[in-house]
Model the fold of this input.
Amino acid sequence: MSDRHLISRRQALHGIGAAAASTALVPFGARPAFAKDLVVGFIYVGPKDDYGYNQAHAEGAAAVRSIPGLKLLEEEKVAETLDVQKSMQSMIELDGATLLFPTSFGYFDPHVLRMAEKYPKIQFRHCGGLWTKDKHPTNAGSYFGYIGMGQYLNGVVAGHVSKSKKLGFVAAKPIPQVLNNINSFTLGARTVDPAITTQVIFTGEWARAEGLSHRRGVELGQRLSRLHREGAEG
Done:
């Protein structure tokens, strides 16, 4: 889906108010109804073919596309700004989506929370485990994978290969899921040698800053590194 298509899709929301006003004049029975299919929307912060986080979600979306009675919507390269709220609103009001997967970490607060409050009959599921039952809207929720297990095995391999016993981990942000990965990686490495240390660099971004990350790793004398960010670098 091209950026131009995404922009025009969001701009279409400007006409919703006028359309709603005209619809109010039409008898209830004559109003258009959404199809009975379950309409599910996936929104990605980057390209769907990034060989990383976004592609993993896109592959999951592709797996459910063939389910009978399900219509799939996707939008890529949607920033963690008001743009994602417009995309969610578009999927709901223009396409009839009733289940949304805004996948990026930064979508949750405030964007998913605001839309969940605005559309209480729509279900929102966010990747990252940030939702809590007693604090957030009941029509929202979280999911996450046991990716720390894979990082533990990565650490075991790194421990066997490393000669300096100095490992590096380049991460985006110090959120619980990322810290879990760093700890799992280090614990795996220390099954090989308890003296192994891991130096962590936080870039502050889920994407970009690859050159900076690499230079910092070299400066710190790290020979092996692991990344928890978007794209193929990880």
User: Anything to note?
Assistant: Strands lie at 38-43, 70-75, 99-102, 123-127, 140-143, 166-171, 197-202, 224-228. Residues 1-8, 15-31 have pLDDT under 50 and may be disordered.
